[in-house]
Write a structure and sequence with these properties.
Number of strands: 9
Strand order of the largest sheet: 5-6-7-3-8-9
Number of helices: 8
Helix content: 25-40%
Distance between the termini: 31 Å
Order of helices and strands: EEEHEEHHHEHEHEEHH
């Protein structure tokens, strides 16, 4: 399988915050030589506890953080992000139409009519009727807002999506609907997805492979069924036990 993303030996560190002006600031290494690859059309889960470096890795992949060392190789243009919180990731003062069309205004030469056509198409792909174009985020439910976020991520026709805890703020019923939507989009559009989560049950439902991140290091990876049924690393075993997966 050809890779759409390759991460090689990535290291990232930050200066710790000072408590007083007299404190010496040390560097804290967040990612410690991470290797990762995602094949074309593959959904890869990245799991680990809070603070292990998952979101930092996502920002490195998107180019929002420059690593201290290592390499990130993209075989696609403009990978897009689906954020955890649909309540804060959408501009509350703007309509859905404005939110969807904004990246097209800045990065394409499409006409107003062409932008509207694409906004309608992506909204329908995300499972919402075009009547929602004139609504503001405050008029939508949590699940509807997350569908708008997904439609927004599709506006530039990306081949790679980074989904950072995209269902953690939703109730169980809506979670299942959003997971089904992501699975359908992967199949219908040939998308690759890096699905970041602390919820191993959710990852099992959606992903082809899983990578386990602990303190900035990938400690285990493999096909989901293999890792879940026969975990090798003690940390993976503890995560599975804590999730009620034996």
């Amino acid at each position: 399988m050809d890779n759409i993303l390759t991460v090689k030996d990535v290291h990232v560190s930050f200066l710790e915050e000072r408590r007083t002006i007299f404190d010496k600031r040390n560097r804290i290494e967040v990612l410690k030589g991470v290797d990762l690859n995602i094949g074309k059309g593959e959904i890869v889960g990245l799991v680990g506890e809070s603070g292990c470096g998952k979101s930092t890795l996502a920002k490195v992949i998107l180019g929002l953080i420059r690593p201290d060392s290592g390499e990130v190789i993209h075989e696609s243009e403009r990978p897009q992000m689906i954020f955890q919180d649909p309540y804060s990731s959408l501009n509350p003062a703007k309509t859905v139409r404005f939110i969807l069309e904004e990246p097209l205004k800045n990065q394409t030469n499409l006409t107003a009519e062409e932008r509207l056509i694409r906004a309608k198409e992506r909204l329908i792909q995300a499972g919402l009727d075009e009547k929602y174009l004139d609504r503001k985020p405050s008029e939508l439910s949590g699940g509807q807002r997350q569908r708008v976020c997904i439609a927004q991520s599709l506006m530039m026709d990306p081949k790679l999506l980074i989904a950072d805890e995209p269902v953690s703020a939703l109730d169980v019923t809506i979670q299942a609907q959003i997971l089904k939507l992501l699975d359908d989009l992967q199949e219908n559009l040939g998308l690759s997805i890096l699905f970041i989560s602390h919820d191993l049950r959710v990852v099992y439902q959606l992903c082809d492979r899983v990578m386990v991140l602990r303190d900035g290091v990938i400690v285990e990876e493999g096909e989901v069924d293999e890792v879940y049924r026969n975990p090798k690393h003690e940390y993976t075993k503890r995560l599975l036990q804590a999730s009620g997966i034996e």
